[in-house]
């Protein structure tokens, strides 16, 4: 058996920089990875999906330019679209490999499992270390639908291997992945979304769902709410989905996007005293430590909000903790975005969430029709919303739905990180005519006088 200073299981967004930093500092580090280096973000998640959406949204924007009087003929070279996606993914994946190699991390390309106390084995290698970090991420959950397992359905794992555009795409799910990849409609697939609930992105406020539903209808996407798939068949290269309302939907491709499960089944974690919760996520304390001293877990597998920036921030905090600093994972402002068009930029609490916590909260909302920039640019879908604490005047959260709001929401992230009051935003002089100008306008709705909230409106 070998010994090391640090073992990292999984080359996710936190594991890679952590392994590289410790190796560069002269520690003996072994990293196990059973699949492509760089984890889901680089290979099957953020990187390929956002490179893909760059093409889909370019096509969508070109078509929507008709309302500005610009009539474009859109021709899709799907092979080139997907080769570009794959080449960016490969570039990032190779970058991860070089980063680990140059730092001196020993990479074992194999599935790892615990075989004893703080002992990990995989690919014929057994290593023991005083510090072990688990960063094994999640995989798609596949619903138990009769017939599905026998068909060549897609998940986010093989979606980006597509060589030809399916004329008709069926998508099961109404969450992040279903919506983002469902906008393949913009590249020309006739797309149908099969949603078991009554709205898209059900965890968001209902008017967010309504805006996205409008946008999807404008893209020609069929929305089927309150339905489940009872049977899947695949004959002559065509899927047939029988819904519980009797309807049958056909398509050349079927994407399953029904949520994620933690990659902890293969870890045999009980051997070393690492406990899992009922869903299989690794239990951790405020400082990322599992139920076994010396073993830590970060990222999606530890039930952190499943975003790359969270796993990456986990790494920064865990590294500080391992270097003796007093840090926790509980004092950070976290935002996220959905890269549909229009985008959803979110941070902090909604009004409902704040009220459930007993906070005296208030929200203000500014529709797109009240924003000069959006009228000038012809972006009429969406709204900006801010939630504040009426006693402390602190900003509790924001929901921005509209053009490139994943960028704009960072204004709120920074204000909230700085613990600024809404008055700081209200007094800010933003540039005319920008989308950003509408953020002080939003805050001015709280002043309650009859003054205009910004120029020209
Ligand atoms: C389609 C899609 C789009 C996404 N888009 C975004 C986005 O735009 N923005 C965003 O912030 N987040 C996005 N996410 C989420 C994001 O990808 C994850 O939150 C992020 O990758 C963090 O994951 P992680 O670090 O926990 O582990 P992962 O990146 O999942 O990596 C875990 C690694 O561990 C390996 N592994 C698992 N078990 C073992 C084992 N026993 N032995 C060895 N290796 C093992 C896996 O092979 C994998 O490589 C997206 C996800 C998907 C699926
Ligand atoms: N932009 C981003 O940051 C981004 C993009 C993609 C994914 N992600 C991350 O990945 C996570 C997973 O995304 P996701 O889209 O897989 O999950 P999700 O939880 O967002 O959506 C799952 C959807 O599947 C539906 N569903 C679940 N079980 C079903 C069943 N048996 N039959 C029919 N429908 C079913 C749910 O009702 C929901 O609509 C997200 O929560 C997010 O954290 C982030």
From TrEMBL:
**Superkingdom assignment:** Bacteria
Pfam entry (one): Pyr_redox_dim
Alphabetized, the UniProt keywords read: FAD, Flavoprotein
InterPro entries xrefs:
FAD/NAD-bd_sf (IPR036188), FAD/NAD-binding_dom (IPR023753), FAD/NAD-linked_Rdtase_dimer_sf (IPR016156), Pyr_nuc-diS_OxRdtase (IPR001100), Pyr_nucl-diS_OxRdtase_dimer (IPR004099)
Cofactor names? FAD
Q: Which residues form the Pyridine nucleotide-disulphide oxidoreductase dimerisation domain?
A: 337-440
Coiled-coil ranges from the UniProt annotation: none
SUPFAM superfamilies, sorted: FAD/NAD(P)-binding domain, FAD/NAD-linked reductases, dimerisation (C-terminal) domain
Q: Where is the FAD/NAD(P)-binding domain?
A: 5-312
Q: Which family does it belong to?
A: Belongs to the class-I pyridine nucleotide-disulfide oxidoreductase family.
The record's annotation in PANTHER family points to: MERCURIC REDUCTASE
Q: By what name is this protein known?
A: FAD-dependent oxidoreductase
* Species, as recorded: Nostoc flagelliforme FACHB-838
């Amino acid at each position: 058996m070998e010994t090391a200073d640090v073992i990292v299981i999984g080359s996710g967004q936190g594991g890679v920089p952590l392994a590289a930093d410790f190796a560069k500092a002269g520690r003996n580090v072994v990293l196990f990875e059973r699949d492509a280096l760089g984890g889901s973000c680089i290979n099957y998640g953020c990187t390929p999906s956002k490179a893909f959406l760059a093409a889909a949204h370019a096509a969508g924007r070109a078509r929507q330019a008709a309302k500005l009087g610009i009539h474009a003929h859109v021709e899709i070279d799907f092979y080139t679209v997907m080769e570009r996606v794959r080449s960016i993914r490969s570039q990032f994946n190779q970058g991860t490999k070089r980063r680990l190699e140059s730092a001196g991390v020993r990479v074992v390309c194999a599935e790892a499992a615990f075989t004893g106390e703080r002992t990990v084995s995989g690919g014929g290698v057994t290593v023991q270390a005083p510090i072990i970090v688990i960063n094994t991420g999640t995989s798609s959950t596949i619903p138990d639908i009769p017939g599905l397992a026998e068909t060549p359905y897609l998940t986010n794992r093989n979606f980006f291997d597509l060589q030809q555009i399916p004329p008709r795409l069926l998508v099961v799910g109404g969450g992040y992945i279903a919506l983002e990849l469902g906008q393949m409609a913009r590249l020309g697939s006739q797309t149908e979304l099969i949603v078991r609930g009554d709205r898209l992105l059900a965890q968001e406020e209902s008017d967010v769902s309504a805006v996205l539903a409008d946008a999807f209808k404008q893209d020609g996407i069929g929305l089927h709410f309150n339905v489940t798939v009872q049977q899947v068949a695949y004959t002559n290269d065509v899927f047939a989905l029988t819904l519980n309302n009797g309807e049958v939907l056909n398509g050349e491709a079927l994407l399953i996007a029904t949520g994620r499960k933690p990659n902890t089944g293969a870890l045999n974690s009980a051997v070393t005293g690492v406990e899992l919760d009922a869903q299989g996520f690794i239990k951790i304390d405020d400082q990322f430590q599992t139920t076994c001293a010396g073993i830590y877990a970060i990222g999606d597998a530890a039930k952190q909000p499943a975003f790359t920036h969270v796993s990456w921030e986990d790494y920064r905090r865990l590294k500080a903790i391992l270097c003796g600093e007093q840090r926790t994972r509980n004092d950070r402002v976290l935002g996220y975005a959905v890269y549909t068009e229009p985008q959803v930029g979110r941070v902090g609490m909604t009004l409902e969430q704040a009220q459930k916590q007993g906070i005296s909260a208030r929200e203000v909302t500014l529709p797109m029709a009240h924003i000069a920039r959006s009228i000038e640019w012809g972006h009429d879908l969406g709204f900006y919303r801010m939630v504040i604490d009426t006693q402390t005047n602190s900003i509790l959260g924001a929901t921005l739905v509209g053009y490139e709001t994943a960028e704009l929401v960072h204004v709120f992230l920074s204000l909230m990180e700085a613990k600024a009051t809404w008055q700081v935003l209200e007094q800010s002089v933003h540039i005319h005519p920008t989308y950003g100008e509408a953020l002080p306008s939003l805050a001015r709705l709280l002043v309650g006088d009859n003054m205009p909230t910004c120029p020209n409106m």
